[in-house]
């Protein structure tokens, strides 16, 4: 029997906390619970025995108690006597003996009776609360049951409160089955991610809006999470700035449906009373489902938006640890503004904002393409057109400068995009932004330094060559690291691990090209050497040869501006010797 564990948990849950708050004017809809609690009286006197019946679809466990209707957070009231000793047992909640009834085993049942005995000091009105375990992991916690009162107490203005079935005065209830996506696009406005999301399936997010009456919209949302799922309506693509948010928060086998105005990037501030109706929910197999109804129009000051306008729609999920935590990952955003009360649509969304995509793409182009070609041109192509000039400068230099300026411009332009998107510094992006800023700084420093370079023959030119080479190389290496870090950021939602493999391929290709060109340069020298040896029979020792080679193969001090082409080096060396 599993009940010790579950019963204990239910006991803790049910004994220690009050019911969920909600609205007393909900109406019964198809979502409402099939489990009902009925009593055979509407009034009681101290000492009375009241028959309480729980019935509904087959369930395995339950936990029934009575509480002061005026103070549902308070202790359990009265005691119970059993009607079915085989399938039920009395428990002690707080200090009151026998103040609750629960199951004895998880055998399937659909009906159970018990007697509640009104205590001497009973409050004026009491309400029955029941928690039902339909099956493992499907709970309905503290379904509010009927309220009964002592005779001389005036009942509330609305006679409804004395109704004995759950449906009529039900504030929050449960759903019995997953939502349906079948009328998405025809009858419902749906946002699905992925776009073929079947709301019953795991690992997909579903949000729908359906007009109920002239001024009412039924909202359904589901998604996998053990924390919360939420959506928000926004005038822009940035969360915050007063966005209208709706959160379904799973709180130990219970879902709270809340509204909030997202003012900043901090935690949401919940509205004390969500202006929602017919709130219902279900927790099953790691999926949170919730549904509610709200009016299309709201007075502006309440923080809710009117639904008949165009909004970006965000969907987020995250964890709850006492407080709402930031989303696990980038929220989903629709790729445009939509009118959820307008023509029914079935749309998807993206977890990767366009600005961030452009940021990644431009940075990639800059640091994997333009900068690499620029370096190769400077290092290996100088001897190709030694004498041809373009606008008064050597061609290789013009090409190198143009490519490097382009790299810096691309970097600068795409550098601001994440800041634009985030509206500030993003503290969720690890080292990427820090290293990224370093790369940006080096990329700005490099052309400035080049602008102040000493003339080719000046002695300080060597220092410039060193600095230019090392700054450039550091920036390139850092940029590759930054790219690897950036690719895995949630804002891009790239397919792991293939993005990393692809990038590794690119890096290997670049390094390979460089090595090949280097070997090619080596061979050129070698050939030149052979010619020299043949013509002059010079006593060309291996060590001198290696020295010459190392000068051309290792960039500094032979940095890529004036000395890297092999032939000239050999001639210079010959002249010296
Ligand atoms: C080497 C060039 C790059 C530099 C200098 C750079 C720089 C930056 C900086 C400074 C930020 C922080 C902005 C902020 O905190 O709001 C940032 C954010 C970001 N970068 Fe890069 N980046 C580079 C390359 C890339 C690449 C190639 C990718 C993707 C493949 C990428 C993906 C991202 C993402 C996703 C963010 C947003 C992080 C977030 O706020 O969630 N970056 N980048
Ligand atoms: C309700 O049920 C209890 C227990 O069976 C019984 O004692 C009581 O008389 C019943 N009350 C009414 C009004 O039927
Ligand atoms: C949204 O749709 C509703 C219903 O069709 C319409 O009354 C309203 O004017 C639309 N709003 C906008 C901003 O288009």
UniProtKB/TrEMBL annotation:
Subcellular location field: Membrane
Residues in DOMON domain copies: 203-318
TM stretches of this protein: 361-381, 402-421, 433-452, 464-487, 507-525
Signal peptide: 1-22
Keywords: Electron transport, Glycoprotein, Iron, Membrane, Signal, Transmembrane, Transmembrane helix, Transport
Cytochrome b561 domain sequence ranges: 321-520
Protein's name in the database: Ferric chelate reductase 1
